[in-house]
């Protein structure tokens, strides 16, 4: 199974739109958590829509099977990464709620 660090890194890369290492640090310091999360969700939605578009194109004969497989694969990886990040956030929230005040 893929480790959560790898899936978390994939989610972060998807959220940042494939920015380089220098741009990652700058984007992180100038963006709020909410805007990064919104960008990740928009990226996930775009990947899913791209996969749907490629699938329709393949069914109508205007697209290739390789394009469909790649688009669906990217969408699946992004979804798995977002679920892994969500699980980590829920786990952290539950841990905080267990702390004594």
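Q: What amino acid sequence fits the structure above?
A:
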């Amino acid at each position: 199974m893929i480790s959560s660090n790898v899936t978390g890194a994939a989610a972060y890369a998807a959220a940042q739109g494939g920015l380089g290492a220098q741009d990652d640090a700058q984007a992180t310091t100038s963006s709020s958590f909410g805007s990064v999360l919104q960008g990740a969700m928009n990226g996930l939605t775009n990947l899913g829509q791209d996969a749907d578009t490629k699938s329709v194109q393949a069914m109508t004969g205007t697209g290739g099977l390789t394009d469909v497989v790649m688009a669906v694969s990217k969408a699946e990886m992004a979804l798995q990464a977002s679920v892994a990040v969500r699980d980590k956030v829920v786990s952290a929230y539950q841990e905080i709620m267990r702390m004594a005040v």
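Q: And what stands out in the fold?
A: The helical segments are 4-15, 21-30, 33-60, 65-98.
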